[in-house]
Amino acid sequence: MDFLKIEEKWRKKWEDERADSFDVRRADKKKYVLEMFSYPSGANLHLGHWYNFGLTDVYARLLRMQGFEVFHPMGFDAFGLPAENYAIKTGIHPKDSTEKNIKTMEGQLRNMGASFDWDYEIKTCDPEYYKWTQWIFLQLYKHGLAEQKLAPVNWCPSCNTVIANEQVVDGCCERCGAVVERREMRQWFLKITKYAEELLDGLDTIDWPEKTKIMQRNWIGKSYGGTVTFDLANGGSFDVFTTRADTLFGCSYVVLAPEHPLVREITTDECKAAVENYRAEAARQSEIDRTSTVKEKTGVFTGAYAINPVNGRKVPVWIADYVLATYGTGAVMAVPAHDTRDYDFAVKYGLPIERVVKSADGAPDDLPYVEYGVAVNSGFADGMKTEDAKNAILDYLAGKGKGGKKTTYRLRDWSVSRQRYWGAPIPMIHCERCGAVPVSEKDLPVKLPYNVDFKPKGKSPLGANEEYMNCTCPKCGGPARRDPDTLDTFVCSSWYYLRYPNAKNDKQAFDTEWTDKLLPVDTYVGGAEHACMHLLYARFITKALRDMGYLHFDEPFKKLVHQGVILGPDGKRMSKTRGNIINPDDYVSVYGSDVFKMYLCFAFSYTEGGPFSTDGIAPIAKYLDRAERIVTKAIDGKGIAPADDKARADLEYAVNYAAKCCGADIAAFSFNTAVARLMELTNAMYKYDTADDALYNAAVTFVKLVAPITPHVAEELWERLGNKDSVLRQPYPVADESKLARSLIEMPVQLMGRFKGTVNIAPDATEAEATAAALALLELPAAKKVIYKPGKILNIIV
RNA sequence: GCCCGAAUGGCGGAAUGGCAGACGCGACGGACUUAAAAUCCGUUUGUGGAAACACAGUGUCGGUUCAAGUCCGACUUCGGGCACCA
Question: What is the dihedral of CA A503, A504, A508, A514, to 10 degrees?
Answer without folding.
Answer: -70
